Design the sequence.
């Protein structure tokens, strides 16, 4: 499975108990479809590895409590802390931003050229922001129709025409 075919579900934030359960801090809205998951993918050193789910339940605001098959101890669960989790795009909640699917697209700007990859979509008080990895720096660019010059889904690239000074804030 490739990251381009998935969306970022959330990060495994900590262990829960001593029998291998973990908390996942969700980056998307909770969806009843998640309770029916048989598996999800965990980024293990750059490769998405499927992990089969024994139980999945919502704990509270944006946290899911998950027990994976074959993860049965505190030590096993420790190896998963801070790992990123992913699901295929067909599990994307309907009310979620359609731009979650553009994670790992390359971003370029008409004035500044190639900027990097979209690593996340952040919601800032209702405003969607592209989070771009630019030479190990984080650039935040608001998703606004006037900024988007072209979206090339086939080549996974978005070309922006940002206002003067916006990119310069980060350079």
Sequence:
């Amino acid at each position: 499975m490739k990251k381009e075919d998935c969306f970022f579900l959330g990060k495994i934030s900590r262990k829960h108990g001593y029998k291998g359960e973990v908390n996942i801090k969700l980056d998307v809205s909770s969806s009843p479809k998640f309770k029916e998951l048989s598996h999800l993918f965990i980024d293990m050193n750059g490769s998405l590895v499927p992990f089969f789910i024994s139980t999945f339940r919502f704990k509270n605001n944006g946290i899911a409590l998950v027990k994976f098959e074959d993860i049965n101890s505190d030590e096993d669960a420790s190896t998963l802390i801070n790992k990123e989790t992913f699901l295929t795009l067909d599990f994307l909640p309907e009310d979620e931003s359609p731009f979650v699917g553009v994670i790992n697209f390359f971003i370029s700007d008409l004035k500044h050229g190639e900027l990097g990859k979209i690593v996340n979509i952040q919601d800032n008080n209702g405003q969607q922001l592209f989070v771009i990895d630019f030479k190990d720096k984080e650039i935040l660019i608001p998703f606004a129709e006037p900024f988007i010059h072209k979206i090339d889904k086939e080549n996974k690239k978005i070309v922006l025409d940002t206002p003067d000074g916006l990119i310069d804030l980060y350079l």
Remarks:
- The CA atoms of residues 42 and 85 lie 5 Å apart.
- Helices lie at 74-78.
- Residues 74-78 form the longest helix (5 residues).
